[in-house]
Amino acid sequence: MMDYLSSKPDKSPIAPAPPTISPVAPRFPPPNLQQDQIPSSSIKYPTVLSPANGVKTGSSSSHLSTPPGPPVFTSPVRPAAVPFQTSPATPQPVALSSGSSLPTSSPPYFSNGSVELQQQLPSAIEEPVPDGKSPCVLFSANKVLKYKKQANVPSLGFGVLVSPGKEASPGPQVIQRDPHRCHDCGAYSNLYSNILIGSGQWQCVICGNLNGSEGEYIALSKEELRNFPELSSPLVDFIQTGNKRPSFVPVTDSRTSAPVVLVIDECLDEPHLQHLQSSLHAFVDSLPPTTRIGIILYGRTVSVYDFSEESVASAEVIPGGTSPNQETLKALMYGTGIYLSPMHASKEVAHLIFSSLRPYKMNVPEASRDRCLGTAVEVALAIIQGPSADFSRGVVKRPGINSRIVVCAGGPNTYGPGSVPHSYTHPNYPHKEKSALKWMEHLGHEAHKQNTVVDILCAGTCPVRVPVLQPLAKTSGGAFVLHDDFGEAFGINLQRASVRAAGSHGLLEIRCSDDILITQVVGPGEEAHIDNHETFKNDISLCIQMLSVEETQCFSVSMENKHDIKSDFVFFQFVIQYSNVYQADITRVITIRLPTVDSVPEYLQSIEDEVAAVLIAKRTLLGAKSYSDAIDMHTTIDERVKDIALKFSSQVPKSKLHRFPKEISLLPELLFHLRRGPLLGNIVGHEDERSVLRNLFLNASFDLSLRMVAPRCLMHREGGTFEELPAYDLVMQSDTAVVLDHGTDVFIWMGAELAADEARSAAALAACRTLAEELTELRFPAPRILAFKEGSSQARYFVSRLIPAHKDPPYEQEARFPQLRTLTTEQRAKLKSSFIHFDDPSFCEWIRSLKIVPPEPI
Question: Is the pLDDT of residue 126 over 70?
Fold first, then answer.
């Protein structure tokens, strides 16, 4: 997880601490003042700007900070095995939507005085067509305000969500040659580049520099230029498979299948172990036959299972109190055992191993049992690195394969390296915890260097000491997930984690027109060292090293105007470089052009409410490191909404109330959901759960992030259809069933009347479960799916996620929830009498408390 904070070129490179928020007169803090706890990570942000652009040469540093906790990702999954669903997914090229078309040809304005040159150069595509869009890149607005003072209102902000590995169908055009890059700033040629067809020279849209194309862009007419994918599409993939990757193979084979090593806690009581065994058996049945698997158990010792024994579960045992020494590892590696084996040769042995597991026998509390998790992961890394049994079979291990370690943990790491004392009351606990955290972070970095991702899946009732284990998953690029038990949800996530293909050596570069300044980046990345990427003499790109490249990771990028913009367009170029699972080097180039406007209403009309809400939510959650911080963020959200109304709308005549801009009327309700939901509200009780949720959200894709902010509500109708309704408590009608998707949890609520009819309720429940599975089929981590009846104790989990709109006057209820008009008078009265009074305000009550008139529903 990274949070990049830029500094102005003429300011100190150290970002000041955020101002405190007074409870009496709170003030909204601008996003570029936010700073986190880890000063050691500073991102490379080359800023040797061209003197021709009016900016003096120099360098400005920027700040990268990381909230505690691992990056947790979503991942592509599809049904594959019973009883769980999974998918062999790889990062695929992203394509334009079927409705996308080529952008307009209006020549860009260059701020370095090259207007005369610009007028001589035709752009590659000149027909008046819409500006390019990409499913990988979602802007909070489709236009940019020209005037700095209007644009840089921190309460609303402007930014983009970048999903580097997002898959779309059909895929982008693939180019198997080197791209043309600007010699000055390093930007790539694209469909907005102005081109001299006689000489083949092209003009960079970022810096205005004129570049050669080695004669490649010489053409008789502009139409010929359309044959170049990069000059006709906003998204292209350049692929190199030659000298740099001589081991490239076009199809999957056993030698390139990423190994998966299971590291399993053996200190489990019998009920937990039985659930875990069921999940493990289903897991191995779901794996492709070419997947290589390793199995390691850990307690006070580390047991490495040998697949060469076909009729018995046999393991080498290593002491867990210290890191394994070279002699121990050498004896293991050069012995006769086989510790990584393809599934087609080892499935029966794996089932035998899982069936042989036994529950913990000693009379020791769960939290006090010795677990050498750190040593077990070290051994797993050694097995993956080799030498392994593959060498004895004459198979050369290929470099750069992305491996995965999946830890199945039921308690904290309390023995050996990276461990903490059994009890929080230990006199030296704070120091031990700090040392353990650093050791785990180091181990995660070592795994990342070996192209190995460590996922940690926890389950059970024993606290796992989340702050200690999170750095291991985070720094390796893996996921950290908490479960209630080792049952169905754990099994689904075990499968989805293991097949979640990841690209390696990922680098994200962002270049913008000189008018735009990047102020903050939040996402699963860290500092990009200077030797990790090419540099150009005036390269002002922001460079981020990605910990892994997975389909639904997301970076949240906040931007602002450096000054008033004079040009008609601004340009953004996003470049993702990574090696895919076939070891081909991919360079994905996405170029977006946005028009500039001087009309505030026109700008507001272009805002994407949901994208803006997710960007605001990620900036807000970044500051919610503890429960008390989360409560403080309520005031920040209140002030944000008030400031947007003040800056972008007008006061109601003869009243102290302000209107909220009608163009973004959906935004305040989304932020109200954020304010009272599990991310900032009091729905989640334990701080470990809140920490994991927070870090999942900060790295999650747009789709999952939106659902975590605001739940999606669907009411079951006769015939198995569903009607989407606002997430209000008015949906709790006794003769219906409702599905509520809140990202990490999906609830199925059955009304009492419906539940009384066995046949109808069974059909409705089956339809609701099918819908819930379809909604979450591609989601990682897989959510809990909980079903309960009206009036049950569990129903409170469902009710707490809904806005209490029953407190509003009837006319407002009908305006915001039109479905009420279909109810009879008797049904309305029965619904009204079913609600229990509590103090939580409705949306309308909350927004009126801010002196704002509730916006009209869309």
Answer: no
**The pLDDT of residue 131:** 57
Residue predicted with more confidence, 21 or 808 = 808
Inter-CA distances, 675 with 314, 634, 669, 784, Å = 53, 6, 10, 22
**43 pLDDT more than 90:** no
Question: Which of these ranges, 523-527, 571-575, 640-644, 808-812, has the smallest mean pLDDT?
Answer: 523-527
Q: Copy the structure tokens of residue 406.
A: 């999946």
Cα(635)–Cα(630) distance, rounded to whole angstroms? 10
**Highest mean pLDDT (candidates 160-169, 210-219, 235-244, 536-545):** 210-219
**Which has the closest alpha carbon to 523: 498, 550, 502?**
550
Query: Residue 603's pLDDT band (boundaries 50, 70, 90)?
Result: very high
Backbone φ, ψ for residue 311 (5° rounding): -120, 0
**pLDDT at res. 797:** 84
Average pLDDT, the chain: 81
720 Ramachandran zone, left/alpha/beta (phi>0; psi -120 to 50): left
Task: Give the count of beta carbons closer than 10 Å to the beta carbon of residue 575.
Answer: 24
Cα–Cα distance between 441 and 8 in angstroms, integer?
Answer: 31
- Any residues with CB less than 8 A from the CB of 844 and at least 6 apart, and which? 805, 808, 812, 816, 854
* 315 Cβ contact list (under 8 Å, min separation 6): 297, 303, 304, 305, 306
Q: What is the pLDDT of residues 700-733, one digit of tens each?
A: 999 999 999 999 999 999 888 999 999 999 999 9
Token pair belonging to 649: 């709308």
Residues 853 and 54: their CA atoms lie apart, in Å, by: 45
DSSP state, 225? G
- Nearest residue to 60 via CA among 565, 690, 517: 517
Residues 6 or more apart whose Cβ sits within 8 Å of residue 807? 841, 842, 845
Output phi, psi for 511, to 5 deg: -125, 140
**Among 596, 543, 575, residue whose Cα is nearest residue 235:** 575
Please spell the DSSP secondary structure of 332-370, one letter per residue: HHTSS---SEEHHHHHHHHHHHHHT-----S---GGGS-
Q: What is the distance between the alpha carbons of residues 401 and 175, in angstroms, rounded to a whole number?
A: 23
Angle between helices 373-385 and 326-333 (to 10 degrees): 50
Mean pLDDT within 456-469: 92
Rounded distance between C-alpha atoms, residue 306 and residue 333, angstroms: 12
pLDDT of 368 > 90? The answer is: yes
Strand extents, DSSP E, 504-623: 504-512, 516-523, 525-527, 542-546, 555-561, 569-579, 585-597
- Calculate the CA 625 to chain-centre distance: 18
Q: Taking the mean position of all CA atoms in its chain, how far away is CA 191? A: 29
Which of these, 158, 167, 292, 177, lies nearest to 228 by C-alpha position? 177
How are beta strands 569-579 and 504-512 bridged, if at all? antiparallel
Residue 273 CA to residue 809 CA, distance in Å, equals: 53
Query: How does strand 63-65 pair with strand 2-5?
Result: antiparallel
Give the tokens for residue 472. Answer: 């291991």
The answer to whether residues 261 and 404 touch, using CB atoms and an 8 Å cutoff, is yes
Residue with more model confidence, 343 or 171: 343
